[in-house]
Amino acid sequence: SSELTQDPAVSVALGQTVRITCRGDSLRRYYASWYQQKPGQAPVLVIYGKNNRPSGIPDRFSGSSSGNTASLTITGAQAEDEADYYCNSRDSSGNPFGGGTKLTVL
Amino acid sequence: EVHLLESGGALVQPGGSLRLSCAASGFTFSSYAMSWVRQAPGKGLEWVSAISGSGGGTYYADSVKGRFTISRDNSKNTLYLQMNTLRAEDTAVYYCAKDGVFYYGSGTFFYTGEYWGQGTLVTVSS
Predict the structure, then answer these.
(1) A-chain residues within 8 Å CB-CB of B112?
(2) Radius of gyration of chain A (CA)
């Protein structure tokens, strides 16, 4: 089981802002990374470190952290952002991935 | 451009063995730790195992410790996962993933999954 907890599902209206959270004690000690996974596809890294986006990831994706909570924010969600999102912390006990959040864009 | 290509997935009976491979290209393979991450049907991601760039350090999830062995051949740019005594609960898509690294202040930090392969399906069933 994972030490990192995520809300199973979140929804957002098209063009609005949504925050996906990840909680765990390991986040006090280590940065989270975030992955997007669409059905039938491999995960894709969207945020790592303090708030770093890999090349090709739109700037509407951003990351933040406070205490034991890391957050992935999508500002102006698009239809193509509908996917599962997973957090990860290298310093986490057990499975270092959170359980995932299914994002629905309405 | 980084490419990771897994192979070796198959249907295998409980108690059987399988070896997965992951061919890497587009980066200096020996400089990066690599991981195997799996995803059971309809479930989330589960980290399985990791290996340092040199191969000298190996790490396993409790669920596979003693049954799975991770290794790498840096001369062939290939990562392996030997899976023995397979169980039905090992059924999953297995991904190989390249570690990433970033620097903040005076620290060096690593993270799993800068790049991922497309996955290979392992089905354990009689």
Answers:
(1) 33, 88, 90, 96
(2) 13
